[in-house]
Design a protein that fits this description.
The chain is an alpha+beta fold. It has 6 helices and 8 strands, in the order βααββββββααααβ.
């Protein structure tokens, strides 16, 4: 029953936005709400793909070592991003075998880990299912296992290895994701139109008819002139006739008038933009190994 790290068994879990990556870095709390570390990685059963241990980095909370926590003892709260272990004390964490620099988890090492956690698992199981007397009997049975490396199976101890998820108490939860294309719009400036005016000069000609007065003197000699007595002749020296002369002069001036009116406005033209891209979707692969299963869809 070989154990491998999560990234070795499921190398693409980060790219596929799985919840598995969220569990890493969850804080781990013992009884009394004492923080004892955070999840560093997860050990997975290489044959079944089931979670077996959380690798907990105790950091400066407990001597800075890494220890293993069977997944069945951890109550996962995704909302609070924490894993709580009922019945586990900080002192027990300090006494757990060190996982640092361990190249391979073998049966003997796991038995050390299980030996430390079996009393906690027995207490939790006994308290949940029976009274105090039955709980004591359960502890007595479970603290002295008779398993060996040839016959041991993780299913023998579900209290240690059945994943406790506050969102799904019946087993492990694996969310399947799919990508969707989201169509949205952004308003951006594509250009600017500037409309102004300038002054052009040109020479204009205009014709205005004007009238000028002048004196015309006409002289005539009467043909039937009648003689007048000298005494009756009215000779007057210095007698003059006055005639006033007028003429029109052009009055040229400029005035501004509206030649043309320009109205500037903008209109919106509607069109449909299309985009094509490749999207991914996760599908569930089920290896029943010949066993009948019931697939319930909620």
């Amino acid at each position: 029953m070989a154990l491998v790290k999560l990234g070795d068994f499921y190398p693409d879990y980060r790219e596929e936005h799985s919840d598995l990556d969220d569990i890493k870095n969850f804080d781990v709390y013992a009884q009394g709400d004492n923080k004892v570390g955070s999840v560093y990685d997860i050990l997975v059963d290489e044959q079944t793909g089931k979670f077996r241990y959380f690798i907990v980095d105790t950091g400066f909370w407990v001597f800075g070592k890494k220890v293993l926590l069977p997944v069945g003892l951890g109550n996962i709260d995704y909302g609070a991003r924490r894993i709580s272990v009922n019945g586990l004390s900080k002192e027990q964490v300090e006494s757990l075998p060190n996982y640092d620099n361990l190249e391979k988890v073998d049966f003997d090492y796991e038995e050390q880990v299980r030996g430390a956690y079996r009393p906690i698992a027995a207490t939790s199981a006994g308290t949940a299912t029976a009274g105090a007397a039955d709980a004591t009997a359960a502890i007595s049975d479970l603290t002295q296992p008779t398993y060996d490396r040839n016959t041991y199976n993780y299913e023998h101890e579900p209290s240690l290895y059945n994943l406790n998820d506050s969102n799904d108490s019946e087993g492990q939860t694996l969310k399947l994701y799919e990508e969707r294309l989201i169509a949205d719009k952004q308003r951006r400036k594509t250009g600017e139109v500037t409309i102004g005016k300038h002054v052009e000069t040109q020479t204009a000609r205009v014709a205005v008819p004007v009238d000028k007065e002048r004196v015309v003197i006409e002289r005539t000699t009467p043909t039937d002139a009648t003689a007048v007595n000298p005494g009756e002749a009215n000779f007057r020296e210095g007698e003059v006739a006055r005639v006033e002369l007028y003429e029109e002069t052009p009055d040229i001036r400029k005035e501004a008038v509206v030649r043309e009116e320009v109205r500037v406005k903008k209109v919106v033209e509607h069109e449909t933009a299309e985009a094509t891209d490749t999207i991914r979707r996760e599908e569930l692969d089920v290896d029943t190994q010949g066993l009948p299963i019931v697939d319930k869809q909620g």
